[in-house]
Design a protein that fits this description.
Elements: E1 2-6, H1 18-31, E2 36-42, H2 45-50, E3 55-63, E4 66-75, E5 78-84, H3 86-89, H4 107-122, E6 133-137, H5 143-150, E7 157-161, E8 169-170, E9 191-192, E10 195-197, H6 198-205, E11 208-211, H7 214-219, H8 223-226, H9 230-235, E12 240-242, H10 272-283, E13 292-299, H11 305-317, E14 322-329, H12 331-343, E15 348-352, H13 356-365, E16 368-371, H14 381-388, E17 391-395, H15 398-403, H16 409-414, E18 420-422, H17 427-441, H18 444-455, H19 461-475
Parallel strand pairs: 1-2, 1-6, 2-5, 6-7, 7-11, 11-12, 13-14, 13-16, 14-15, 16-17, 17-18
Antiparallel strand pairs: 3-4, 4-5, 8-10, 9-10
Helix pairs in contact: 1-19, 4-5, 5-6, 10-13, 11-12, 11-17, 14-18
Length: 481
């Protein structure tokens, strides 16, 4: 089976969000299952600079009005098809906007061209590669399924939502330049609130839709999570799938992780003590053996950080526990945690910033990882926590709900529990989950069993790749890897 993956960001070449992780990790995981993936992405200058000896495989005198060409290259274990068009991608600022944060005014053309090029690849414009399925990631690739549909090209497509907040909406005036037939500007086509919606176009046109967890797939059918697309998603729920992301289990391996103070494993958890001591030192916490809660996160409303701030004094400090927070974001939340750390030295530590090595140490040394997100399409932090025996305490939402097994009585008796969930996402239920966790920590055997069960969870990309492979196979007549 051959897949054309279309994405604006691909790790390790370019990343601003989780989409890049999936677009970068899925192809090698699928290759291990005998599925060939080529990845079509924009030729951002940073990407072009990394290509060694690219081959020109197709030239466009005009692609949606600008010259362009398709380059083929192998890089970072990926087979890339790069849409090279300086007119589209060589510019100041970020990938999507200028330095002042304004969207590039021709984003409709920059990413319309990406979708349009995907269809050319699907039609065989790249010698030796005709994909069985076109897999479009997020709004930047959203027109690809629409071109396939409206140009009548018999190739199934998958539209994956990584972040439904970004939808790629443009004025109706761009429609005439997209080379789509007039009937595409319709309620069940690319039209969205009087304009053109790229994510909407993909969702309306794709053979199948996926998002990054089964619970988030359910949530986005509702107004509270669907960001205006809930009606369409609900209407297409018969082709909607939730597939949880994986993590790089080689980078995140507590037995070999060079960023840890000491290695450890599910069998030999003793090494965690040295990591805990290192965390205590970095955060200036008392080494008193009390429960150590950790949080590694962007400090934003989405992440429910304010809920933790609300309960820190009573339910962490006065309860005799400790808290180490690593993150940056909203200045008000940063100020709140600076104040909490100043008020409770030795019990609350706060480091502002993004610090990958420290995050490994915290996963390796913390007793429990707090994740009180208001919404979380998939979430990675809890997967790292599971793998490192840092028991996740999570809000019951999105991928958090799907990846952590709550330590209720039945799960404990069955030996299945891997963490704690709380709902609704509010301060009191979060405090309740912390109390449940510290209650269980007093029973060392029970706590160790939860840690070990978490460390046995399959959080690898292989599991996700198997689900994508099944989905692709279901779309291709007689399809199998
Ligand atoms: P989101 O993508 O919404 O921020 P995820 O849980 O999916 O949330 O992924 C966040 C990733 O970034 C995780 O790997 C987390 O460990 C990491 N991270 C977030 N904040 C920090 C930080 N301050 N320092 C180091 N790593 C961080």
């Amino acid at each position: 089976m051959r897949i054309l993956s279309v994405a604006s960001e691909v790790y390790p070449l370019i990343k601003t969000g989780g989409l890049a992780d999936v677009a970068g990790a899925l192809p090698p995981a699928l290759a291990r299952r005998g599925i060939e993936v080529r990845t079509l992405m924009p030729g951002y200058p940073q990407v072009l600079a990394k290509l060694a000896e690219p081959r020109v495989v197709h030239e466009y005198p005009s692609l949606l009005g600008v010259p362009a060409r398709l380059l083929e290259a192998e890089l970072a274990g990926l087979s890339l098809i790069v849409l090279d068009s300086p007119a589209l991608y060589d510019r100041d600022g970020g990938h999507y906007g200028d330095r002042a944060g304004r969207d590039h005014p021709d984003n409709w053309r920059r990413f319309g061209a990406l979708g349009r090029a995907a269809v050319d690849v699907a039609m065989g414009h790249v010698p030796g590669f005709v994909p069985d399925v076109v897999h479009a990631h997020d709004w930047q690739a959203g027109l690809a399924p629409a071109y396939l549909r409206y140009w009548g090209i018999p190739r199934p497509s998958v539209m994956t939502i990584h972040n439904i907040a970004f939808q790629g909406g443009f004025p109706a005036s761009v429609f005439g330049q997209l080379e789509l037939p007039p009937q595409a500007f319709a309620l069940d086509g690319v039209e969205f609130h009087g304009g053109v919606g790229y994510l909407k176009a993909g969702l309306a046109s794709a053979s199948a839709i996926t998002t990054v967890s089964p619970t988030y797939a359910e949530e986005i059918k509702t107004p509270g999570y669907g960001m205006g697309l809930h009606g369409l998603i609900a209407a297409r729920s018969n082709v909607l799938h939730g597939i949880v992301n994986g993590i790089d289990t080689e980078v995140w391996n507590p037995e070999t992780d060079p960023l840890l103070a000491a290695p450890f494993s599910a069998k030999k958890l003793q090494g965690r003590a040295a990591n805990r001591a290192a965390v205590e030192k970095r955060f200036g916490l008392h080494a008193d053996g009390s429960p150590l809660f950790v949080l590694v996160s962007r400090l934003t409303w989405q992440k429910g950080i304010d809920l933790l701030a609300w309960i820190t004094r009573q339910d962490i400090v006065e309860a005799g526990h400790r808290l180490a927070v690593l993150g940056s974001g909203d200045s008000q939340l940063e100020a709140t945690f600076l104040a909490l750390a100043a008020q409770h030295p030795g019990r609350v530590g706060f480091i502002i910033g993004y610090d990958e090595p420290l995050s490994h140490l915290m996963q390796g040394g913390g007793d429990a990882m707090l994740i009180p997100s208001r919404f979380e399409p998939c979430g990675l932090t809890q997967l790292y926590g599971l793998r490192y025996g840092c028991v996740p305490i999570v809000a019951h939402t999105g991928g958090l709900a799907d990846t952590v097994i709550d330590a209720n009585l039945a799960a404990l008796n069955a030996g299945a529990a891997t963490g704690f969930q709380f709902t609704p996402v509010d301060a009191a239920p979060l405090a309740g989950a912390i109390r449940r966790a510290t209650g269980l920590m007093r029973d060392k055997d029970a706590w160790t069993a939860i840690q070990r069960q978490g460390m046995r969870s399959d959080v690898s990309w292989d599991r996700s790749a198997a689900a994508y492979a099944d989905l692709y196979a279901s779309l291709v007549p007689g399809g199998s890897a």
